[in-house]
Amino acid sequence: MSSKNTICLWYEGGALDAARFYAATFPDSAVGAIHRAPGDYPDGQEGGVLTVEFTVAGIPCIGLNGGPHFRHSEAFSFQIATDDQAETDRLWNAVVGNGGQESACGWCKDRWGVSWQITPRALLAAVTDSDRAAARRAFEAMMTMKKIDIAAIEAARAGRQSPPA
């Protein structure tokens, strides 16, 4: 890795599978070098995948197959900004549909336990609107959602009960 700062994610043993999934799912993502263990270690054997270099949406990462000792939590997440509902749906459905889990307010987890925020740019604009009443309405609408529905957020921001037909 040539980056001075790299995110290291601990996996029980699926770092390569996770890196391949991220590269196939998220734009500007790729799998780089795969490093194999030079000897046996507590949760792996010589020759097994020890680390994988990859990028997720341009962010350099290393996946470490360290075993079951540490778990991912929502304290860390990738926040992916989406441009429209189709992109939001595609990414959400890819993460959740590949063994992941839905959560609230645009959050989900992949099958390896890594948390993702699939966040439409329209949501960010709505909840930071200088019109505080509009921002509050959009925020309250978001709080009822799992996957973000951009039309419903925009309707709430505008003070409409439901999106236009």
Q: Can you offer a commentary on this structure?
A:
The protein is of the alpha/beta class. It has two domains: 1-69, 2,3-Dihydroxybiphenyl 1,2-Dioxygenase, domain 1 (Roll), CATH 3.10.180.10; 72-165, 2,3-Dihydroxybiphenyl 1,2-Dioxygenase, domain 1 (Roll), CATH 3.10.180. It is built from five helices and eight strands. The protein has helices spanning 15-25, 85-97, 121-127, 132-142, 150-158, and strands at residues 7-11, 30-36, 49-56, 59-65, 77-82, 101-102, 107-109, 115-120. Strands 1-4-3-2 form a four-stranded mixed β-sheet. The protein has a four-stranded mixed β-sheet with strand order 5-8-7-6. Strand 7 and strand 8 (115-120) form a beta hairpin. Helix 3 packs parallel to helix 5 (150-158) and helix 4 (132-142) packs antiparallel against helix 5. The longest helix is centred in the middle third of the chain and has 13 residues, at 85-97. It is elongated. The protein starts with 6 loop residues before the first strand and ends in a 7-residue tail after the last helix. The mean pLDDT is 95.
Question: In a nutshell, what does this entry contain?
Answer:
By secondary structure, the protein is of the alpha/beta class. The protein has helices spanning 15-25, 85-97, 121-127, 132-142, 150-158, and strands at 7-11, 30-36, 49-56, 59-65, 77-82, 101-102, 107-109, 115-120.
Domain unit count: 2
Q: Beta-strand percentage?
A: 25-35%
- Secondary structure: helix percent: 25-40%
CATH class membership of the largest domain = Alpha Beta
Distinct helical segment count: 5
If classified by CATH, what would the architecture of the largest domain be?
Roll
CATH topology label of the largest domain: 2,3-Dihydroxybiphenyl 1,2-Dioxygenase, domain 1
Low-confidence stretches: none
Structural class from helices and strands? alpha/beta
Strand count: 8
Whole-Å distance between the termini? 50 Å
As laid out across the biggest beta sheet, the strand order is 1-4-3-2
